[in-house]
Design goal:
elongated, two-stranded antiparallel sheet, mainly alpha, 7 strands, single chain
Length: 789
């Protein structure tokens, strides 16, 4: 069953675990980590592996020994490295990684990491390369709809706390993180590191942290432009590496003009390398400016203009790629030999950054790429969409539809974007990538586009329905029905009709009988392996429940649970089992109801779906089952979990499920003498006002209201409630045992049992044991088939 989620709790920072660092030779540690990673199973989620490797150092790189030594001595747990593009942040960090005895977990941040779960997956894999993480940690990050605060962050933090060595966790290019949630999660995880561990955040702008507070507590080290700027001696080494041999005085003047900016100096060096006249070199150095616009102008006139046409075309046209390999460049350029061209560019130190140890994947320095993209837009604007379309072709052919989607967007090819979104939106959403999917859908907000692309409109309708956005869900669904679909859905359907029918059944806008008809129609049109098939079966079973046809309902719900297990639809299975538990309990099968309730609860815990709105029904069913067996503390724990998602019930677009969950919760609170039962009754009446045709649920609401009215004021324990001892006594009161025999079973005296029984009678508003048993059975506190003899 599709579900919604919300951030429900913030993981509390945990004291840093005190462990003794075990120094080891850097090379040996790297070899051991690599061997351990190769032996460990592949992670159960897709990541960009090139992002988690420490970048290789290019030949001719200036050694920043003094700065690196200062960084190695950093004692604070957090370090922020902030400077504009081209200040050599990545290079310094890579040199540090080579010289430090601690292992480095490295993440090169990009736009995808604005989805918090994607960022945490890359963090996990980087740490996994140091010490293999438990499969359960990786499975948590792969689980559909994982909450970073209730599941991912705590588990990843606990895993880091178990490391036998201090770790340096580096996030490079943090200025690309526009979402603060992912960064907050990484900060919380990092706080679990061993003594001597360090979190390094490097980017063009300072990350959104409480800098003043961290600084005041001595927990923050700050590395800025003043420490990253090259000294005249370092700048001279850089220039000599590019064959620009200038005097120290001339270099000092150039450093002063560039304010020590390594990228500007490097750009100047590349330009000066083409000059042969010593006096011209000096003049060019003196006139060179560190201003971005000036650098671009200088490169256009003095450097790019000197390149051979073929090389310049290659640079300009491949600038549409944020990362590149030989095969991809061949496809984009419709040519051959790109791998050799990339090798030439790398050898010439032309701002090409290797992304993996095999040096297969590269990217341009951001500043250089910006310039190349401007050149392409000015000189060959008609080629831009063509190049992006070719890139999209290559990525689709190589099984990366997300990258294909981004290039299709850049090409303005909405037809292709729509086809890809139609194929991957829901699987990606169920995989926890909510932010990514909602960004894709935002490109189709215009009403005309929704009708033009009904497949996208349908996916959006499901996503909005899951997220509790009623108006948007209905608007997108109406657009999907008006449009004409041409294509194939992810399950092989060539028509939208079955999907629309199932969604209409879930929304239940026209009453139970129409819900049943829609569910039957949708099921008939779905392929056997459609991910939507378990949902259709669940809706069929639920419709029969609402009609009071429990035997037929149970058969469909059993099939729904089996199909959901086969296809991995955990939330659908959880709801189906919960519904079956309700049926069993209603038909005097408390043992069966209890067993099914435990199954549903295990799924909630195992799949980490406590924050899903659909978990409310499973938690409510588990609470009532616990109450029937006198496990009052367990029942309260289940209800506390349900309270976290209870606010979402009012937003959920599946009224039948909302009402069932509210009814079960209200009955549990009534049994415990909790005033929240009255509040829930008001919420139930609100749902019925909007959806009056929900079958037997309306009658059940009337019964609940009657039960609430029958209880005397405070007579059901509304003020104090039944104590734990009294709740343990209730199941035994409903047997043939005498007070003396009950006392023997509970290891207390007969008088104690008698005193507790009288207190129970008073709180339940009755005057005899038999009346107490009847009242307790009505409240669901004892099994209805057990009575005193």
């Amino acid at each position: 069953m599709p579900i919604s989620k919300a951030r429900l709790a913030t993981a509390s920072p945990t004291a840093r675990t005190k462990k003794t660092q075990r120094p080891a030779a850097r090379g040996t540690a790297r070899e051991s980590a690599r061997e351990a990673l190769e032996r460990s199973p592949a992670p159960p989620f897709d990541v960009v592996e090139s992002k988690i490797h420490v970048p290789s150092l290019r030949s001719g790189t200036v050694s920043r020994t003094a700065l690196v030594n200062r960084l190695r001595a950093t004692a604070e747990p957090i370090a922020i490295m902030t400077a504009p593009a081209g200040y050599g942040k990545t290079t310094v960090l890579a040199q540090w990684a080579v010289r430090d005895s601690r292992p480095f977990a490295w993440i090169s941040v990009d736009d995808r990491d604005n989805d918090p779960i994607v960022l945490l997956r890359h963090v996990a894999l980087a740490l996994h390369g140091i010490e293999p993480l438990a499969p359960s940690v990786l499975d948590t990050l792969a689980a559909p709809g994982t909450s970073i605060w209730t599941s991912a962050v705590p588990q990843l933090g606990s895993a880091l706390a178990e490391f036998d060595q201090a770790v340096v966790l580096v996030l490079d290019d943090t200025h690309l993180l526009r979402s603060g949630e992912g960064l907050d999660g990484v900060l919380t995880v990092a706080q679990h590191g061993s003594e001597g561990s360090l979190l390094v955040l490097a980017g063009r702008t300072s990350p959104k942290l409480p800098v003043a507070a961290l600084r005041g507590r001595g927990q923050l080290s700050e590395i800025g432009v003043d420490r990253l700027a090259l000294s005249p001696n370092e700048a001279q080494l850089l220039l000599r590496a590019t064959s620009a041999d200038l005097s120290l005085a001339t270099v000092a003047g150039l450093v002063d003009r560039c304010e020590g900016w390594p990228a500007a100096l490097y750009l100047a060096a590349l330009a000066l390398r083409e000059e042969h006249d010593r006096e011209q070199d000096v003049e060019a150095a003196i006139q060179f400016s560190g201003d971005d616009r000036h650098i671009a102008d200088y490169l256009r006139s003095e450097y790019l203009a000197q390149l051979r046409p073929g090389a310049l075309r290659f640079l300009r046209r491949t600038s549409v790629l944020d990362r590149m390999c030989g095969s991809l460049c061949d496809a984009v350029l419709d040519d051959e030999g790109s791998a050799r061209e990339l090798e030439k560019i790398e050898r010439s130190n032309l701002f090409l950054v290797p992304l993996d140890h095999q040096r297969e994947w590269h990217r341009y320095h951001h500043l250089f790429r910006d310039l190349l993209q401007r050149e392409l837009a000015e000189r060959e604007p008609q080629l831009v969409p063509i190049l992006h379309r070719r890139a999209a072709d290559w990525y689709e052919l190589h099984g990366d539809p997300e990258s294909a989607l981004e290039h299709a967007l850049a090409a303005g090819d909405l037809d292709r974007v729509a086809a890809i979104v139609t194929e991957i939106a829901l699987p990606t959403y169920y995989g926890g990538r909510i932010a990514s999917v909602e960004r894709w859908l935002s490109h189709f907000e215009h009403e005309g586009l929704l009708e033009r692309y009904p497949g996208v409109a349908l996916q959006g309708a499901w996503v909005h329905a899951i997220g509790g956005r009623a108006a948007d869900a209905r608007r997108w669904l109406d657009a999907a029905e008006r449009g004409t679909f041409k294509g194939t859905l992810t399950d092989g359907c060539s028509t939208l009709s079955p999907w629309i029918a199932v969604l209409r059944a879930a929304l239940c806008r026209d009453g139970v009988y129409q819900m049943l008809a829609d569910a039957e129609s949708g099921l008939a049109g779905l392929p056997p392996d459609s991910l939507l098939r378990p949902t259709a079966l669940l809706l069929l079973g639920s419709a029969h429940v609402l009609l009071g046809e429990d035997e037929r309902a149970d058969a469909f719900l059993r099939s729904a649970a089996a199909e959901a297990e086969r296809l991995g639809a955990t939330d659908t299975r959880m709801v189906a089992i919960s519904e079956r538990s309700l049926i069993a309990s209603a038909h005097d099968d408390p043992a069966g109801g209890q067993a099914l309730a435990l199954q549903a609860q295990e799924l909630v815990d195992h799949a980490h779906v406590h924050q899903y709105v659909t978990s409310a029904i499973a938690l409510a069913v588990a609470a009532r089952a616990a109450l029937r067996h006198g496990r009052w503390d367990q029942a309260r724990a289940h209800l506390a979990e349900a309270e976290r998602v209870r606010p979402l019930l009012g937003q959920a677009l599946f009224p039948w499920l909302t009402l069932q969950a509210q009814l079960e919760l209200a009955r549990a609170y009534l049994a415990l003498g909790d005033s929240r039962a009255h509040t829930l009754l008001e919420e139930i009446r609100d749902v019925l006002d909007d959806h009056p045709h929900l079958g037997v649920l309306a009658d059940q609401a009337d019964e609940l209201e009657t039960d609430l009215a029958a209880m005397p004021e405070h007579g059901n324990g509304a003020a104090a409630g039944l104590t734990g001892a009294e709740l343990r006594l209730l199941p035994l009161l409903s047997t043939h045992l005498s007070f003396r025999e009950i006392g023997e079973e509970l290891f207390v005296s007969r008088n104690t049992i008698k005193t507790q029984a009288i207190s129970v009678y008073r709180k339940l508003g009755v005057s005899s044991r038999s009346d107490a048993i009847d009242r307790a059975a009505l409240l669901g506190l004892v099994e209805t088939t057990r009575r005193a003899g």
